[in-house]
Design goal:
The protein is α/β, with parallel strands linked by helices. The protein is built from 10 helices and 7 strands. The chain has a domain at 76-240: P-loop containing nucleotide triphosphate hydrolases (Rossmann fold). Helix content is 44%, strand content 12%. The longest helix has 17 residues, at 187-203.
């Protein structure tokens, strides 16, 4: 049996902090991940917001590696060459917002319609622009898909939530739609493309679109609603030249 004794009302409880130096200021708790860092800042426990602790730097490096690794191997070393692409990158970076990890996140920005014949480097330069954004500490969240593959992924089928997959694509902070207009058109593909383009158009989300078709041909192939929005929301980048794949420069 454990004996208990009545508490002496005149006896002050021991102060667990009494052994500490009363003149010393406690140091803020070191965060171990971005979630703890966010909480500590909200509570005022990490006052120096200009300094990024080592654990968060490690997370940032890991996010950078993961974002780069998602670029297809053939385009891993791609770099943007056209001056409009450099202007686009600068504009997206200017409108990016700071985040708790120290990296910037894409908010809104301009879009580009990259037009040119087969093998003129549209896809190469588009991935080069994405890579440049990532290495600038921005654009960790991005989505890229060939239009034909995108339609195949979003086509309704048993056991697949096509609408949820579609929403993930159109809400991506940065989106590349490659080879728009190359897939066989149908009423369904036109509807999907219209919803995608209209969502990006209304919210001014940065989007890269590559196509072999001129805007007039896109209108014939995909309809006025899509062509009109693309014409307004994008700056057209025309890439000319011979087929780089045939010349071995892809």
């Amino acid at each position: 049996m454990t004996e208990t004794h009545p508490r002496d009302p005149h006896h002050a409880p021991e102060d667990p902090m009494a052994a500490r130096d009363a003149t010393a200021s406690p140091q803020p708790q070191q965060p171990t991940n971005v979630h703890e860092l966010r909480l500590l800042r909200l509570l005022g426990g990490w006052p120096d917001t200009s300094a990024t602790p080592a654990p968060v730097q490690d997370l940032r490096s890991e996010a950078l590696r993961e974002a780069i690794d998602r670029i297809p191997l053939r385009f891993r070393d791609a770099r943007p060459e056209h001056p409009y692409l450099h202007e686009w990158i600068d504009a997206v970076l200017d409108q990016a917002l700071p985040s708790v990890s120290g990296m910037r996140r894409i908010s809104t920005g301009p879009s580009l319609l990259m037009v040119g014949g087969t093998g003129t480097g549209k896809t190469h330069q588009a991935y080069g622009a994405i890579s440049t954004l990532i290495q600038s500490g921005c654009g960790m969240q991005w989505t890229a898909a060939n239009a034909a593959d995108l339609y195949a992924h979003l086509r309704p089928r048993h056991g697949h939530d096509s609408e949820a997959a579609f929403l993930r694509v159109i809400r991506s902070p940065l989106l590349l739609v490659d080879d728009l207009g190359a897939a066989k058109p149908s009423e369904w593909t036109e509807d999907i493309t219209y919803r995608l383009v209209n969502h990006r158009y209304e919210r001014m989300l940065p989007t890269l679109v590559t196509t072999n078709l001129a805007i007039a041909d896109l209108r014939d192939r995909m309809g006025d609603r899509i062509a009109s929005r693309l014409s307004e929301m994008t700056t057209r980048v025309v890439l000319a030249g011979r087929d780089r794949r045939r010349s071995g420069a892809a």
